[in-house]
Design goal:
This protein has 410 residues and is an all-alpha fold. The protein contains 15 helices and 2 strands. The two termini are 36 Å apart.
Length: 410
């Protein structure tokens, strides 16, 4: 690894200068840890989302087919223990962290609060629009719309104290736990959409289902935001302390998150995972409680991975007394994906649709979770190649370009 001095902080505005807002940060001024984590998290997002494209199979807890092969069960154990309900909280932590960095950059530049809030609201509203389009055309399990709604709440309270954030986090924790329990309940039969006159597996049926999903997302928006808020509060508090921007200053915290978080995460995941592969068959009430446990310890697992990556980066920076610049090809590739996370996330959906939908190549029809997981890894690797090529060309992702143009204008 080579090193370089810390990027200089954004200079305060000159007296009397009118500052509309502080624009996006160039790649050279970005910190490694958040982007590295986003690149890793997107692999988890691909693995977690891919199972929802499996059709013509009876599913149980964690949306896994109940009659999987030995290879499928191995995949279920690995993904259920280390990915499910772990990647999504990590992405939420990073979303809130990035939102906080954006707030801090506006303050450091001397942007008036009203203008800063307007910028944050505009960005969140456009994220909602992009999320809605994603649902309608590609994937009903979209998270962008929910993050846009979450962004509206964070923008409204961006100047609130840490204490206020903690109160919000604790008061909405019950919503998160109640929703998390749903993952412990059984899924359904092949292609079931109870009570709806929709023919599953056709282009028209898919389109109608996604439109209904969009309506459902809109109506359940308060519940969704309430579920995300406890995780977002953690990301906000970490962001206010610059834990990932200055990891060398927070090594004790990062070590504790890692060493305590991973055992708690694994032990909390195993009961539901073992039920998923049929090692034991608890009743629905116990399964719901196991879903709560799986979800709650998943947040701990997300913090553990955040701690591990931050610990590694911080240790390198403490040794060299400067910001880490990746020379490893693997690290550079992950960082390239993280810096184009929106593009790579949407590209995943495009590839999943083309490969897995019954009306496309149909590889998801009757598929086992081992084969679907291998496809997910392959899809993620394609996004890595695309991100690396864009990085070498010195270009941002097209989705990032669109969102930034809509948010900041020219």
């Amino acid at each position: 690894m080579t090193s370089m001095p810390h990027p200089a902080p954004v200079a305060p505005h000159l007296a009397g200068e009118t500052v509309a807002y502080s624009g996006p940060v160039a790649a050279a001024g970005r910190f490694i840890a958040p982007d590295l984590l986003r690149g890793i998290a997107l692999l988890g997002i691909a693995l977690a989302n891919s199972v929802y494209y499996v059709t013509d199979r009876v599913t149980g807890p964690l949306a896994r087919p109940v009659d999987g092969s030995t290879g499928d069960h191995v995949a279920d154990v690995l993904v259920g223990t280390f990915v499910d309900n772990r990647s999504f909280p990590l992405f939420t932590l990073l979303f809130a962290y990035g939102f906080t960095v954006l707030v801090q950059r506006q303050a450091a530049r001397g942007v008036p609060r009203a203008r800063a809030r307007a910028l944050l609201l505009r960005r969140s509203l456009w994220l909602i629009v992009l999320g809605a389009l994603h649902v309608v055309f590609l994937f009903e399990g979209d998270i962008l719309l929910s993050y846009g709604l979450l962004g509206l709440v964070l923008a409204a309270m961006f100047a609130a104290s840490d204490r206020a954030f903690r109160i919000v986090g604790w008061s909405t924790l019950v919503v998160f736990l109640a929703v998390a329990g749903q993952d412990g309940l059984a899924g359904g039969g092949p292609g079931e959409i109870d009570g709806l006159p929709i023919e599953v597996g056709t282009v028209l049926g898919d389109a109608l289902w996604r439109l209904l999903a969009l309506v459902g997302l809109i109506f359940t928006a308060p519940l969704t935001v309430g579920m995300l808020l406890p995780i977002a509060v953690l990301g906000t508090l970490l962001g206010r302390r610059r834990v990932l921007e200055c990891p060398a200053e927070h090594l004790p915290l990062l070590r504790r998150l890692t060493l305590v978080g991973f055992p708690v995460s694994v032990l909390g995941a195993l009961p539901l995972v073992l039920a998923t592969i049929g090692v034991w068959q608890p009743g629905p009430v116990v399964l719901y409680l196991l879903g709560v446990l799986h979800g709650a310890t998943g947040v701990v697992g997300a913090l553990a991975l955040l701690g591990l990556v931050g610990w590694w980066v911080g240790a390198q920076e403490a040794r060299t007394a400067s910001v880490l610049v990746p020379t490893s090809a693997a690290v550079r590739a992950l960082v390239a994906v993280g810096r184009r996370s929106l593009t790579c996330y949407l590209l995943q959906s495009v590839l999943f649709v083309l490969l897995l939908k019954p009306w496309a190549l149909g590889l998801g029809v009757g598929a086992g979770t081992l084969s679907i997981s291998l496809i997910a890894v392959g899809v993620w690797l394609v996004t890595v190649v695309v991100a690396v090529l864009l990085d070498r060309a010195g270009r941002q992702g097209p989705a990032e370009w669109v969102l930034r143009r809509l948010t900041y204008g020219r």
